[in-house]
Design a protein that fits this description.
This protein is an all-alpha fold. It has helices spanning about 20-40, 40-60, 60-65, 70-90, 110-125, 130-140, 145-150, 155-170, 175-185.
Length: about 190
C-alpha cells in the first residue's frame, strides 16, 4: 500500500492527488487530440483518454515525485490503443463517417477549413500504427528515438512507418500536398 493507494490498488480520493487535477487541466486537451488522432473517432478517443487518465491516476504519487507524467501518459495511451486494435482483430474503419461538420477556428478561411477536412479524412485512412507514428512525430513533436520508445519498437520501424504513412498521405490527398506547398511559398 503506497502513497494514496487502497489495498485494491485504486487511488484514494483523499490522498495522493496533489497536482493531478492541475496536470489533467493543463494536459487533457492535448491528450484528447492525440487520442483522436489515434482512434479517428470522437467517442473512442474519449474512452481512450479516460482509460489513460485512470492509469496515470493510479501511479500519480510516483509520477509526481520524479517521473514524467506526460511521457507516461503518452506511453499508456498508445499501448491502450494498440491493445484495442489487437483485441478487435480487425483493422479500424478507414474512413470517418460521423457526419460531423468541421468547425472553423477564428481567422480561418474556407481553404484552411477544407485542408483540415482533407487531412482528417486522409489520416483516418492510414493504418493505426501509421497514425500513431505521425501523431507522435509531428503532433507531439517527439524524436524518432522517443517515438520508438513510446511504441516499443525500433527506430528503423518508426522511420519506415513514417515514410510509408507520408507516401500514403501523398497518394490519398495529393491536393493537400499541393495546398500546403502553396502556403509554404506564400509564407517564405
Amino acid at each position: 500500500m503506497g502513497g494514496g493507494s487502497t489495498p485494491g490498488g485504486r487511488l484514494c480520493v483523499t490522498r495522493g492527488v496533489d497536482g493531478f487535477e492541475d496536470w489533467v487541466g493543463a494536459r487533457s486537451s492535448a491528450l484528447a487530440r492525440s487520442a483522436y488522432l489515434l482512434t479517428a473517432d470522437v467517442h473512442l478517443a474519449e474512452d481512450l483518454l479516460q482509460d489513460t487518465l485512470a492509469r496515470v491516476a493510479q501511479h500519480w504519487p510516483e509520477l509526481s515525485r520524479g517521473g514524467s507524467p506526460d511521457a507516461y501518459a503518452r506511453r499508456v495511451m498508445h499501448n491502450l490503443a494498440i491493445d484495442t486494435w489487437r483485441r478487435r482483430r480487425v483493422r479500424p474503419r478507414e474512413v470517418l463517417d460521423d457526419g460531423r461538420v468541421e468547425l472553423a477556428s477564428p481567422g480561418d478561411d474556407a481553404e484552411a477549413i477544407a485542408r483540415r477536412v482533407v487531412l482528417r479524412e486522409a489520416l483516418a485512412r492510414l493504418t493505426p500504427k501509421q497514425r500513431a507514428v505521425l501523431s507522435l512525430r509531428f503532433y507531439d513533436d517527439l524524436t524518432e528515438a522517443q517515438t520508438a520508445e513510446v511504441l516499443h519498437c525500433s527506430v528503423n520501424t518508426v522511420k519506415s512507418q513514417t515514410r510509408h504513412a507520408l507516401a500514403r498521405l501523398r497518394t490519398l490527398a495529393p491536393d493537400l500536398v499541393t495546398s500546403f506547398s502553396d502556403v509554404e511559398e506564400v509564407t517564405s
